[in-house]
Description:
Blueprint: H1 30-52, E1 55-59, E2 62-65, E3 68-74, E4 77-80, E5 86-89, E6 93-96, E7 115-134, E8 144-160, H2 176-179, H3 183-192, E9 204-212, E10 217-221, H4 232-243, E11 249-252, H5 265-274, E12 276-280, E13 294-301, E14 308-312, E15 315-325, E16 328-338, H6 340-348, E17 358-364, E18 397-403
Antiparallel strand pairs: 1-4, 2-3, 3-6, 4-5, 7-8, 7-9, 9-10, 11-12, 12-16, 13-14, 13-17, 15-16, 17-18
Amino acid sequence: MCDEKEKQCDICKVPHFERNNYFYGKLMTVRDFSAEQHYFNEKRWLINRMVNGWGVVCGLDVKPIEGETDKVLVTPGLAIDCCGREILVCEEQGVTLVPVESACHKGKEEKEQVEKKLLICLEYHECKTEPIHLPPVACDQKEKGEFNRIRDSFKISSIPLSEQESQPEPFCPQTKEDKEKSLHQYLCDRLREGCPECPDPQCNILAIVTVDQDGNLIEIDTCSKRKLVYNNPMLYDLINCFHGDLPHIIGINWKDLHVREDVSWNDFTNIVESGLTVTFDKPMAPDTINRHTFLFAVITVEEATGYRRLKYIPSREILKEGTVIDGKKATFEATFIVEDGWKRDEMEGVHSEIRHGADFEIILRGSSIVSINGKALDGNFIGGKLPSGNGTQGGDFVSWFSVEPKGQIPKPPKPKPEEAGK
């Protein structure tokens, strides 16, 4: 690398912003008009590089050219360089696979290599256009030339891979100390370390190209080193892709323990006879709701040790049915039907483990239950409130209730809040 005393695109490239103050009679010179352009350009570039980020926005694919082994083709597209400057390529560009050596690369001895790796590098470049002749303004002056326009352009070249600095560390906790912090604290600490600087050379890497010792193309890698600009529409689509339109549980036909009220034996009998029904707000893939993903268990306590164990209740079948509204399946129901033998032994038998009262638990494996569009159930039953979910795919839906002993006289219903004081 060549050492540079000054970074061209750091946070304080422009230490302060000044704009023209207009007033009647103000004499406008080249300095004033240039300042007018610089004020808006530098502010936009600062926001681009520090807020929006830099990299490839779209397009700019790198492809081989049929019949040519020493060139590649770069397609049209848009990028933002690390200084925040927009680079627009509107026509296909051919790039020769001959590395452009920098001043600090020349003179270095290299071992003969069978293969070489080159970076296809896109850089911002200004070029002056529309040349004009300026007449002399004094008797002893000669004509001179100037340019009427400055065009925002680009330069695409191939450079040796060793010349490109490594990419900065991603904003992801790596060490044990970082992982123990809250996300806000971690990001705050990282951002307090300083503002990001541009690599040298200041280019957008479009691809890594592997060539043989004669410069003939072997392979094009367009993604491993390509930096992308994650614009707001893209971020929305990514979030929606992984966490949007998720299925949730919106109804159950039993009383969850969060209501602080035991289930009577008669009510429990009705639940077991009719089955435990769960209602989803999306059409579900029926095959994913089965005896492995929809579980009903009784919690037993070992007398000797006091250990609590889940004993899964066998199912005769799990019924699945979608409801249709306006010609479309709007919701989906799954019903756990208890096996007849278990009902006979535990509901009616004299050696039943539950006749003196018991705790029950219902579990739906959210990571394995998916909707017909392939999204996993957002199943977390937070605070015992429906619909389920915390905005991410997966998460087990876990509900539980207690059943009163068989033969116990049902408790009178609790008075409503407005009647409690009467």
